[in-house]
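Internal tracking record. Fields below are filled automatically when a chain is submitted to the structure queue. Please do not edit lines marked as system-generated. If the sequence contains nonstandard residues, flag them in the REMARKS field before resubmitting.
Queue: standard
Priority: normal
Entity type: single polypeptide chain
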Amino acid sequence: MELTKRPRRLRGNSSIRKLVRETRMSPESLAYPVFFVEGEHIQREIPSLPGQYHWSVDKVPVLVDQCLAHGVSRLLLFGIPDHKDGCASAAYDPNGIIQRAIRAIKAYCPEMYVITDVCMCEYTDHGHCGILTGSEVDNDKTLEVLAKIALSHVEAGADMVAPSDMMDGRVAAIRKTLDEHGHQTTPILSYAAKYASAFYGPFRDAAGSAPAFGDRQGYQMDPHNAKEALKECDLDVEEGADILMVKPALPYLDVLRRVADRYDLPVCAYAVSGEYAMVKAAAAAGLIDEYRVMCESAVSVYRAGADILITYYALELADAMRKGDIG
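SYSTEM-GENERATED OUTPUT FOLLOWS
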């Protein structure tokens, strides 16, 4: 048989396969989510997220050294305060858990790039992402608080803020406040298309942020909708977002692709806690090869259009990229 076109010519060995890869990744595109808690000498494994930890602020050197050893220099910070109330006052306290964590990271390693989650669910006594009027989250009252939280993070030294609340107008409110206080160059990573997903379960356990009543479907997106995600992204672009996020990652690769095709801003995907926990559980049961599934899942996210990946596997993926198993 005479064949002139043989795709297998470019699959013959590892060198040629790596040479012609269409999807390229590097550790510089990874961000690692970390959870800070009050107290001292705490590096406590999170039961719902095996291999992930609650950290006290005094353990920052251990955390940072571990990340840098793997080539990861971008962190996304979440805080779990001791005090919670109806207006999330601990979230914008200059001496709050996240504000102290930011200062500690920057004091120990100024080049570590710090992104902060801007939301209220970990800080409210009702577990919702905003101020309540009755039993409903009041969108417009929440905006002022979100802007205060973002400003407090930046004043503590955060390099970027990432609002995850899904209130209408929150990017504009944060941008206006940051600009008015001289922080025009601080970028906003918007959780633009954040779905009301069942994949957040382990995170809510880790962050103690489950709603005390109801759910978040009134402000997070319906999983059935893709065109709506583009509307949300359009609004955030108009309001001044610098990076757009799709969350979760794997269940919404189609949305990620649409967002990447439509906008010229960097696109981020968040491989959320449920995605991580499922792989861990299946691997612990001996059903899958954890390393290969981790790598293949990440490749799918980048292939769908992500420029940035937030993932609990950031350290392991960075090693895989440097080894050339992916990347």
